[in-house]
């Protein structure tokens, strides 16, 4: 039998999955059920796991899975099998494994959003027209990052960032037929950094 607090915790997790499609963090659960201690949240989660209602994956920020037999109407964290490794250079044996990739960890964090690419300015970085890039929302970036840059508050573009010693900002295309353009730093607002990419072959 679950305590009222454990039921409240489970209900919050279920609602969070339904709204977001991925698991909440301990901090988000604590805020959601209006307590201050993440240690107490962890205790509630261990009780839910003992009741076979959830599974906790170790060393994952969003490592809560709702068990399907106990949560039939709740969308689960999407995963696909990770069956091994395969070389893109010299051939190696593709070895079957027993792991899986948690797609929520990969692309569905709360600070992520997706953009569909148009044009071929980043083709030499492997980003092609029609691809979808996964962006981590942030307003800073390191030299060499591929960023979403808003220019003059109007035009958004996907380019590689390079800062010059004099403060000028270069937005560098990955296409040898296109020119790099330099901007005064106040003209460029960083809106995010590319952290992933999706492409369909069907």
Q: What does the oligomeric state look like here?
A: single chain
Q: Which spans have pLDDT < 50 for at least 5 consecutive residues?
A: none
Q: Give the number of helices.
A: 4
Distance between the termini: 48 Å
**Would you identify the CATH architecture of the largest domain?**
Ribbon
Shape, please?
Answer: elongated
Summarize the biggest pleated sheet: 7 strands, antiparallel
Helix content: 10-25%
Specify the CATH class of the largest domain: Mainly Beta
Describe the strand arrangement of the main beta sheet, using strand numbers. Answer: 5-6-11-7-8-9-10
Q: Would you tell me which CATH topology of the largest domain applies?
A: Umud Fragment, subunit A
Number of strands: 11
Note the run of SSEs as H and E: HHHEEEEHEEEEEEE
User: What is the average per-residue confidence, as pLDDT, rounded to a whole number?
Assistant: 83
